[in-house]
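Hello support,

Our group uses your service weekly, and this is the first time we've seen a run hang past the timeout. The protein is N-acetylmuramoyl-L-alanine amidase. I'm not sure whether the cause is the sequence or the server load. Input pasted verbatim:
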Amino acid sequence: MTIPSGKAVTYLGTYGSWYKVSYGGKTGYVSSQYVKVSTTTTPTTSTGTGRTIVIDAGHGGNDPGAVYGSTYEKVIAFDIAARLASTLSNTYGYNARMTRTNDVYLSLAQRVELTKSYKGSAFVSLHANSSTNTSYHGHEVLVPTGESYTTNPYISASRSLGASINRELGARIPTIRNRGVKYQNVYVVGKNSVPSTLVEYGFISNANDRSHLTSTTYRQRMADATASGIHQFMSTYK
Ligand SMILES: [Zn+2]
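Update from on-call engineer: The timeout came from a worker crash unrelated to the input. Re-ran successfully.
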């Protein structure tokens, strides 16, 4: 058969000066002098371009965080963090680094230090809330205040990052109340040196929130909403 000039064929192998190719459902050999070889790049939908996002699972080791019965904040935070890291790297192409990759204790200062040594472009800390008042419920994000406590030079970018995550969580998980964006002095946010926010995914002391926080389906949804919020922020932040 004849292959018209300029048509693309699929390269299957080299045999001497011949290429084995497939074209139009047929397989055969063409002289290599008539074929221009080009490499195809897999089209990518990700624009993460390898920038590093530091994912901080709150608490760990002998610091369980909030505890309600057999529900531990450190376990919930770690599970969402691992899902988030996976979505960020697999779906968006970021280099996701976790401050802790198992159940160990890290000081707040260590978490901030790790952001530096990982050369992170953004930092997100993952937590669950708790209260003695079991009617308190909802998710929220904490962003830096303008008070002198904040030494993070990225106050406004941190607020954008937090707002972006909060918007995605609100849109994707409407069955948890959205408590919004809170300005609060939090060490890992205020003392960090990159755009930073802390997410409280819900109250483990509240029955409705707890049913979400202990569900792997909802943890995945929380991770995906957070990843989308991070990505929307990063797309506008150079
Ligand atoms: Zn916490």
